Amino acid sequence: MTNRPAYRTIPVFDQRPGTLPVPTGAAANPNATAHTLDTLRRPLRDLRISVTDRCNFRCSYCMPKEVFDKDYAYLPHSALLSFEEITRIARQFVAHGVQKIRLTGGEPLLRKNLEVLIAQLAALRTLDGEPLDITLTTNGSLLARKAQALKAAGLQRVTVSLDGLDDAVFKKMNDVDFPVADVLAGIAAAQAAGLGPIKVNMVVKRGTNDHEIVPMARHFQGTGVVLRFIEYMDVGATNGWRMDEVLPSAQVIERLQTEMPLVALEASAPGETAQRWGYANAQGQYDPRLGEVGVISSVTQAFCADCNRARLSTEGQLYLCLFANQGYDLRSLVRTDTGTSDDTALAEAIGNIWQGRTDRYSLLRAALPPEAQGTGARRVEMSYIGG
Ligand code: SAM
Ligand code: SF4
Ligand code: SF4
After folding, report:
1. Which of 104, 233, 307, 379 to mutate to test the pocket of ligand 3 (most atoms within 8 A of CB)?
2. CA 47 → CA 94, 338, 354, distances in Å?
3. 296 contacts 273 by C-beta, under 8 angstroms
4. DSSP string of 33-63?
5. Cβ–Cβ under 8 Å, residues 176 and 221
6. Which residues have any ligand 2 atom within 6 Å of their CB?
7. Per-domain residue ranges for the chain?
8. Looking at ligand 2, which atom is closest to the CA of residue 382?
9. What is the DSSP letter of 240?
10. What sign does the CA torsion over 323, 126, 23, 303 have?
11. Taking a C-beta distance cutoff of 8 angstroms, is the pair 259, 231 a contact?
12. Left (φ > 0), alpha (ψ -120 to 50) or beta: where does 291 sit?
């Protein structure tokens, strides 16, 4: 078992958190290359890899300008995991049951030659001998240019973030004056390249873009694009999160129902974060031609019970929860290694860490005292570990 210590609070304002000791030695489960379960019997299925901590947007809920300004100390290039290091680490995650890899950031398309990494990851096989499900979350700004090359390298799907159709609203959200039309062009290019089914994520902030819910739904209905509404989350420590700016998913669905009838659909996979709703026809039945929407209720409805996601930061820290305040330094294992193909220590570390995992922040959030809720608690930034 791991000797994982209780979380500590470090009274220093630093975007990047401290490091937990990596538990070494043979994993408690002697069968290290098998489906690994954590203390709540959750398998390890989904690995999210942040390939850069930089971004060309300044979304107020993620990288507010006041903090991420020209003096902000981003990671130096030498601190970033190389593509070879990422692939080495990913291979060991796959050996522990990972079936899906999502590349994220920061803005992942800012990382040079990302196609090279995608091609390396596409060569990996799951424990069942299947290709990995490889996807990417992007703000879409560079997608029109890169969609074809990404597809050719082996990327299967993309998720594009877009917080409104109205230019003024969207520009206020991205805070760098980026126009909606360019993101829509990126989505169209991704569709043309076969990077589907495409998902579009809209973070809903009450009072800022909630009036865009219905126009966004109308725009994407029947296009094959799955629109998902995300509750504005208390991730990180810089976005000034307030509960009264969260619009609960139940209210998103209520607003949609008044305009476009919906029926609840089954979850598509275990651990799926979105609740799915299908557009109904005149008979009140789901019509696949009209498509579906999803809601991700990260604040009002915890989905920790099925959470099968691990997160690898840009510099190789492993986080077991989006709301974690400390990670495990896997980079030190791949950089101090002898350079041979023996990754035993890395494999053991991943097994031990996952088997010791107890994280269930959203489930516990409701029980926290008010002063510990929201951004009062020190946490890792989303732009650092990726969404
Ligand atoms: N830059 C890429 C993008 O925006 O798609 C990838 C990284 S971004 C951190 C990943 C996802 O996290 C995006 O869909 C973004 O909207 C979402 N996100 C960031 N901060 C959030 C917050 N405070 N609450 C909810 N979602 C958030
Ligand atoms: Fe950049 Fe994505 Fe964060 Fe917006 S949500 S600031 S696009 S990393
Ligand atoms: Fe997973 Fe943490 Fe989110 Fe719960 S709060 S669903 S454990 S990432």
Report:
1. 307
2. 9, 25, 12
3. yes
4. SS--B-TT--B--EEEEE--S--S---TTTS
5. no
6. 55, 57-59, 62-63, 105-107, 139, 161, 383
7. 6-385
8. 3
9. -
10. positive
11. no
12. left
Closest ligand 1 atom to the C-alpha of 233?
Answer: 24
DSSP 174: H
Give the CA dihedral 339, 343, 346, 347, nearest 10 degrees.
170
**Which 8-state DSSP code applies to residue 305?**
G
Ligand 1 centroid, distance to 383 Cα (angstroms) = 8
Phi, psi dihedral angles at 346 (to 5 degrees): -65, -45
218 alpha carbon to ligand 3 midpoint, in Å?
A: 31
Consecutive 10-residue averages of pLDDT for the chain (387 residues): 33 54 64 76 97 97 94 95 97 97 98 98 97 98 98 98 98 98 98 97 97 98 98 81 93 97 91 92 96 94 90 97 92 75 86 95 74 57 73
Please tell me the distance between residue 339's alpha carbon and the centre of ligand 2 in angstroms: 35
> Ligand 3 mean position to 307 CA, how many Å?
6
CA of 223 to the centre of ligand 2 (A): 25
Residues with CB under 6 A from ligand 1: 55, 61-62, 104-105, 107, 137-139, 161, 201, 203, 230, 232-233, 235, 239, 382-383, 386-387
pLDDT value of residue 134:
98
User: Selecting from 3.50.30.30, 3.20.20.70, 3.40.50.300, 3.90.1150.200, what CATH number does the domain 6-385 have?
Assistant: 3.20.20.70
Question: Is 323 a pocket residue for ligand 3 (Cβ < 6 Å)?
Answer: yes
What's residue 378's pLDDT? 53
Closest atom, ligand 3, to C-alpha of 311: 8
d(CA 365, CA 102): 26
**Other beta carbons less than 10 A from residue 305's beta carbon:** 12
Contact 52, 110 (CB under 8 A): yes
